Amino acid sequence: MSTAKDHYDQQLASIYSWMAGTPEAAIKRNHDLLRQLGVNTSQGVAIDLGSGSGFQSIPLAELGFSVIAVDFCEALLSELRDRAGNLPIRTIHDNILNFSKHVEVEAQVVVCMGDTLTHLESLDSVQSLLWSVNGVLATSGKFILTFRDYVSAELQGNQRFIPVQSDESTILTCFLEYRENVVDVYDLIYRKEGDRWKLTTSSYPKLRIDRNWICDRLEKSGFDVIQNTVINGMICLVAEKP
Ligand SMILES: C[S@@+](CC[C@H](N)C(=O)[O-])C[C@H]1O[C@@H](n2cnc3c(N)ncnc32)[C@H](O)[C@@H]1O
Q: Measuring from atom 10 of ligand 1, which residue has the nearest CA?
């Protein structure tokens, strides 16, 4: 079992954007989702925690924000910079738990989207992140979280084999194994080399985060939860700093 960081550095970074289909489609989907969650054209600072290759950072910059994109995978940040061109996006290569050390200004929006939250090591780390976000947000600022529900909908038997993406030279299948507080995620990647297929496997744990637990923690950390929905299988929470 790898850490999430090793898994991204050694296995997922090279295929992350391919996994999502086309990057253009992923950016458009997130643009629409951000608007649906109440983020409209604006000025000010937005912080993207676990930005990956920029599927939220780019739409946020296009909407008018100055974006700070934080991720511990340098390969994905490099891809983000290439994709961003002249958009106002600053990348920070660090653990999202340290993000506030790099931020000197108040933010109007902080996002942690696309299931990044479940990559943290413990619920204590999630709690610590909520406090840090509250510390940097401006009054009326919004904190947007989207993550997968690994608690209420436990996949059973063969359902745990998930075909993620494939083309003529690469096939990615994911397998999930549920434990009490985490789900172990196994990524099986077949790559075509000449006329043979080569398999690489890697696994890492994801946190099982209960939706009611995190809403309670958000409220106790000084937020009002103003939206709590499920969109495309992801729990979507919008919390506001009153
Ligand atoms: C599932 S991807 C989501 C990326 C992006 N938000 C999206 O929706 O495409 C999770 C991202 O978070 C990063 N990540 C996970 N845990 C992290 C941590 N503790 N600190 C910094 N980055 C982290 C990974 O490197 C990866 O880029």
A: 116
Written as tens digits, the pLDDT of the chain (242 aa) is 789 999 999 989 999 999 988 999 999 999 999 999 999 867 899 999 999 999 999 999 999 999 999 999 999 999 999 999 999 999 999 999 999 999 999 999 999 999 999 999 999 999 999 999 999 999 999 999 999 999 997 999 999 999 999 999 999 999 999 999 999 999 999 999 999 999 999 999 999 999 999 999 999 999 999 999 999 889 999 999 99
> Is 9 close to ligand 1, i.e. is its CB under 6 Å away?
no
CA of 113 to the centre of ligand 1 (A): 8
- Position in ligand 1 atom list of the atom nearest CA 20: 9
Q: Which helix (H) or strand (E) holds 180?
A: none
What's the CA gap between 70 and 214, in Å, rounded?
22
CATH annotation of 4-149+209-240: 3.40.50.150
pTM, two decimals, is 0.96
- CATH number of 157-206: 2.60.120, 2.20.25, 1.10.3470, 3.90.550? 2.20.25
The answer to whether 69 and 89 have CB atoms below 8 angstroms apart is yes
C-alpha of 102 from chain center? 19
With a 6 A CB cut-off, is 12 part of the ligand 1 pocket?
no
Q: Which protein residue's CA is at the shortest distance from atom 27 of ligand 1?
A: 52
Give Cα 132 to chain centroid, integer Å.
17
